[in-house]
Design a protein that fits this description.
The complex is a heterodimer of chains A (257) and B (204). Helix content of chain A is 36%, strand content 26%. Chain A has 257 residues and is α/β, with parallel strands linked by helices. Chain A has an 8-stranded parallel barrel, surrounded by 8 helices. In chain A, helix 2 (57-71) runs parallel beside helix 3 and helix 6 packs parallel to helix 7. Chain A is globular. With 204 residues, chain B is an alpha/beta fold. A 9-stranded mixed sheet of chain B has the order 2-1-3-4-13-12-11-8-9, sandwiched between helices. In chain B, strands 6-5-7-10 form a 4-stranded mixed sheet, with helices on one face. Chain B contains 6 helices and 13 strands. The radius of gyration of chain B is 15 Å and the shape is globular. Classes of the chains: A alpha/beta (257), B alpha/beta (204). At the A-B interface, helix 3 of A face helix 1, strand 8, strand 9 and helix 6 of B.
């Protein structure tokens, strides 16, 4: 027996509330983040990730306050991402009680940012979040997109993942989201997950597309992911985290029960 | 009411440690401090650490904390967490070689297995190879949350109280007199982690 594969419920948070429907339309309230986080903790979530989709500064303070409240009651690792641009943003969220900080677009605009943050806070708490979209099918190639998958950057996703994690001051983990699969419930982009997992030395969290429990196992067994992230299947009571873990265990995956 | 000093020298997320201790010991005074006097006067000391070992040693020096840590580790219940375990040893491979506090003989090595993802991140089993009050009410082989790229290789095996396997067996908990130290993060290890912290606050 050894290291368990992790299941990470993801909460999209806006102005201190959990919402679903990140793509600007049809946003649906999914509850009080403190209650939701406690529920996932009770069900055996291995970590919880919060993606802050708040636009305003006032809203960001609300998020920090929310993280603070959750960290007083939930004692598993908490990751916060969304709108992190500089060291002060990282410091504020760590002070509030976050353990890991996911950095996305800001790393594209300033490729040295990840290095600076890892040097200051330790690579164990810096996660590089990558939104990748398939641009060629055979053999497949993926490109980094920003602005919710609307703006291409011309950067190859695999090369970017390696660049952001190599050396002593790289990110300590990759949060890999397939923009093609996000919200589709069709399962992870397995080829993408596999390509990144094989290319980098750090753990990879697969994200985007989970619609049923077998998708989680596929992310680990076929994609080589170290952790799997899902949102909607957990939010509205379709499945519990413990059901997800049992399903993974039945497929021969080591999990924390 | 007792005072638990959590050594805060600017490295890592010490607030999580404080919050977890306040949760298990609501009547105790859990204080974040870099003040030698407060650490000296406290009943118990928690010594966390995160990030790079070289930077941690520099921060301890800048805060004039090295002597007070050495004394506290011998005189009162003392809990090292993560880098707070590694710092107790003589030397680490990290940052092209960094000297530690030499409280426990041994050195800190980097995981070198190409088959494994580094850092070792997530929930792994801790085998309790020796009884200890800090293991009270915690099942053998319970899972704790870890994140680290280096591990300790002790010289004195009599201090090893827990081991974990990641490609190879490594030391994940040590104890010597009033000192206990763990490679994992009890403050982030849900019920079993909280139990360990509670055991620490009650440890005579």
């Amino acid at each position: 027996m050894s290291l368990a594969k992790r299941i990470i419920p993801c909460l999209d948070v806006r102005d201190g509330r959990v919402v679903k429907g990140v793509q600007f339309v049809g946003i649906k309230d999914a509850g009080d983040p403190i209650e939701v986080a406690k529920r996932y903790d009770n069900e055996g979530a291995d970590e919880i990730t919060f993606l802050d989709i708040t636009a305003s500064h006032e809203g960001r303070d609300t998020t920090a306050h929310m993280v603070e409240k959750i960290a007083e009651q939930v004692f598993i690792p908490l990751t916060v991402g969304g709108g992190i641009r500089k060291a002060e943003d990282v410091r504020a969220m760590l002070n509030a009680g976050a353990d890991k900080i996911a950095v996305n677009s800001a790393a594209i605009f300033n490729p040295k940012l990840i290095n600076e943050l890892s040097k200051r806070f330790g690579s164990q708490c810096i996660v590089i979040a990558i939104d990748a979209k398939r641009v060629v099918d055979n053999p497949p190639k993926w490109e980094i997109y920003t602005h919710g998958g609307r703006k291409p950057t011309g950067i190859d996703a695999i090369e970017w993942a390696v660049k952001m994690t190599e050396g002593d001051c790289g990110a300590g983990e990759v949060l890999l989201t397939s923009m093609d699969r996000d919200g589709t419930k069709d399962g992870f982009d397995i080829a993408l997950t596999r390509a990144v997992s094989d290319a980098v030395d750090v753990p990879v969290i697969a994200s985007g597309g989970v619609g049923n429990l077998s998708h989680l196992s596929a992310g680990v067994l076929e994609g080589g992911a170290d952790a799997v992230l899902a949102a909607s299947i957990f939010h509205f009571g379709e499945y519990t985290v413990s059901e997800a873990k049992k399903s993974m265990q039945e497929n021969g995956i080591e999990v924390r029960l | 009411m007792q005072t638990i000093a959590i050594v805060d020298y600017g490295m890592g997320n010490v607030r999580s440690v404080q919050k977890a201790l306040e949760f298990v010991a609501p009547n105790d005074h859990c204080v974040l401090t870099n003040d030698s006097q407060i650490i000296n006067d406290s009943d118990r000391v928690v010594f966390p650490g995160q990030g790079a070992m070289g930077a941690c040693m520099e921060a301890l020096q800048e805060n004039n904390l090295i002597e007070v840590i050495k004394v506290a580790s011998k005189e009162k219940p003392f809990l090292g967490i993560c880098l707070g375990l590694q710092l107790l040893f003589d030397h680490s491979e990290e940052n092209n070689g960094t000297d530690g506090l030499s409280i426990i003989p041994g050195e800190v090595l980097k995981f070198k297995n190409n088959e494994l993802k580094i850092p070792h991140m997530g929930w792994n089993e801790v085998r309790q190879i020796r009884n200890h009050p800090l293991w009270n009410n915690i099942d053998d082989n319970s899972r704790f949350y870890s994140v680290h790229s280096y591990f300790v290789k002790e010289i004195d095996s009599s201090c090893v109280t827990g081991t974990t396997n990641y490609g190879e067996n490594f030391t994940s908990a040590i104890a010597k007199d009033k000192l206990f130290a763990v490679q994992f993060h009890p403050e982030k290890s849900q019920n079993d982690g909280l139990q360990l912290l509670k055991n620490f606050t009650n440890w005579a």
